């Protein structure tokens, strides 16, 4: 009978109902298709980051960042923390049993006893104790466990989202360093060229061919080029510091890298439908897991209104003497079921339920907001991918024409045909065109880099 009763109790505990609302994923509050400016034909899978970023120097920096970045370490530690919290909550689904051995000794003087004689007692106990196991009829414990699991999965997804963001940030910082380095070199060449023009103009002034005004204009143009070079070098140093911070610890013996134009980061990624792409993003998955956790917490809050049944008991052996613990007739047991029904709590349980419901409304709004932000991000990047490609082609053609113009005007100036202002204008336009070409190229590569983190979704969310 005892075995049957225990089996009935166990089945009742395992077969309890859940008071949590049935979870339904909200319909993504975004259009069913990308805007016309960002539409793509077909679907292409996102490659691994080592394929997407072929520069060996950049690859080494990303590997170092994934190993040494402190923020990533914090995110990884939070996964371990959330997993441990899930394990703690999961342990409440099963009875906790411990083994306890005790010795109790007491002595009472004669003056305290009914008979005027002293009394001494000895007792030894060895018991297996059932520690206050709750029969989960209403699913309170299981809902708390489901919430802990969802929080763990949300933390894991957030870490994967941060990892993708870190890869993208390291690539962007590296590309910025390359672009500023090339722009600084261009500014150096420009300053040298304007310095030569200044010296030549001063020489021609001394010969009476040019005026003092021509020399002052040449001097101003040269100093402006020197100032621009110093500004770009300062920006490059700041970009290098940012890259160092992201990497965490710069590796020794970095391999040679590629120029900005040779990066080979393919920007022609093809996105599928919004519903297919956005739901695979780790940040969206993290927001959904938070929503699932808030939904489960409602079930736990509802169960607080209903009776709570707890079982406490022990089974073992007891004896006055240590040697008689396991002898015949030494069996001892206790069984203490308890039922608790809230009667008056001054609105505590009702307020907890209101809090759980309000947090679910917040979680739904956060989830929908995350999807809307993701839609806008991807749509903007897809549009930038297409527009920057055309803009870069135009900038390259313009820069080429201005370089040719500068070459012709310089030859005419040295032959005495063109004047000083024509040469300075040609130098300024050629420098501006080359700087703009590098800036647009950087913008195109940056958009392609951000597309990697925006589209490299991962649906692998499993608990081992």
Describe the 3D structure.
- 61% of the residues lie in helices and 11% in strands.
- It has 10 helices and 4 strands, in the order H-H-H-H-E-E-H-H-H-H-E-E-H-H.
- The protein has helices spanning 2-14, 49-52, 56-68, 70-90, 140-206, 212-247, 274-278, 282-303, 348-414, 420-455, and strands spanning 97-108, 119-135, 308-319, 331-340.
- The protein has a 4-stranded antiparallel sheet with strand order 1-2-3-4, covered by helices on one side.
- The longest helix has 67 residues, at 140-206.
Strand content: 5-15%
Number of strands: 4
Secondary-structure element series? HHHHEEHHHHEEHH
Fraction of residues in H or I helices: 55-70%
Radius of gyration using CA atoms only: 37 Å
Which spans of ≥5 residues are poorly predicted at pLDDT below 50?
Answer: 459-464
The largest pleated sheet is described as: 4 strands, antiparallel
Distance between the termini: 38 Å
Broad structural category: alpha+beta
**Order of strands side by side in the largest beta sheet?**
1-2-3-4
Global mean pLDDT = 84
Number of helices: 10
Please state the overall shape, judged from the principal axes of the Cα atoms. Answer: elongated
């Amino acid at each position: 009978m005892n075995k049957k009763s225990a089996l009935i109790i166990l089945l009742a505990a395992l077969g309890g109902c859940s008071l949590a609302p049935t979870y339904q994923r909200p319909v993504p509050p975004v259009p069913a298709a990308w805007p016309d400016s960002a539409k793509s034909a077909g679907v292409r899978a996102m490659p691994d980051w080592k394929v997407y970023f072929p520069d060996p120097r950049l690859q080494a920096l990303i590997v170092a960042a994934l190993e040494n970045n402190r923020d990533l370490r914090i995110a990884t530690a939070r996964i371990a923390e959330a997993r441990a919290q899930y394990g703690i909550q999961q342990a409440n689904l099963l009875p906790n049993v411990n083994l306890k051995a005790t010795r109790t000794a007491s002595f009472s003087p004669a003056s305290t006893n009914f008979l005027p004689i002293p009394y001494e007692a000895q007792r030894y106990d060895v018991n297996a104790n059932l520690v206050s196991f709750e029969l989960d009829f209403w699913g309170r414990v299981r809902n708390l466990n489901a919430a802990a699991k969802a929080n763990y999965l949300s933390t894991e997804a957030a870490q994967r989202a941060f990892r993708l963001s870190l890869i993208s940030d390291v690539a962007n910082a590296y590309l910025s360093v390359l672009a500023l380095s090339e722009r600084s070199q261009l500014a150096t060449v420009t300053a040298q060229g304007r310095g030569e023009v200044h010296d030549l103009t001063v020489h021609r002034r001394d010969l009476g061919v040019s005026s003092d005004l021509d020399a002052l204009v040449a001097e101003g143009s040269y100093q402006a080029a020197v100032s621009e070079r110093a500004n770009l070098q300062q920006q490059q140093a700041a970009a290098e510091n940012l890259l160092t911070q992201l990497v965490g610890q710069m590796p020794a013996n970095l391999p040679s890298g590629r120029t900005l134009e040779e990066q080979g980061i393919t920007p022609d990624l093809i996105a599928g439908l919004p519903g297919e792409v956005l739901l695979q993003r780790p940040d969206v998955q993290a927001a959904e897991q938070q929503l699932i956790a808030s939904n489960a917490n409602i079930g736990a809050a509802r169960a607080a209104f209903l009776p709570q049944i707890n079982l406490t008991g022990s089974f073992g052996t007891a004896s006055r003497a240590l040697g008689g613990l396991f002898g015949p007739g030494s069996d001892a047991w206790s069984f203490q079921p308890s039922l608790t029904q809230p009667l008056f709590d001054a609105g505590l349980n009702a307020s907890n339920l209101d809090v759980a419901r309000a947090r679910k409304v917040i979680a739904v709004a956060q989830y929908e907001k995350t999807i809307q932000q993701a839609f806008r991000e991807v749509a903007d990047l897809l549009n930038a991918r297409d527009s920057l490609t055309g803009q870069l082609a135009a900038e390259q053609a313009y820069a080429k024409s201005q370089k040719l113009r500068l070459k012709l005007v310089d030859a005419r100036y040295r032959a005495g045909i063109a004047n000083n202002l024509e040469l300075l204008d040609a130098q300024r336009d050629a420098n501006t065109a080359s700087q703009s070409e590098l800036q647009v190229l950087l913008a195109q590569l940056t958009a392609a880099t951000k597309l990697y983190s925006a589209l490299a979704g991962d649906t692998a969310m499993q608990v081992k």
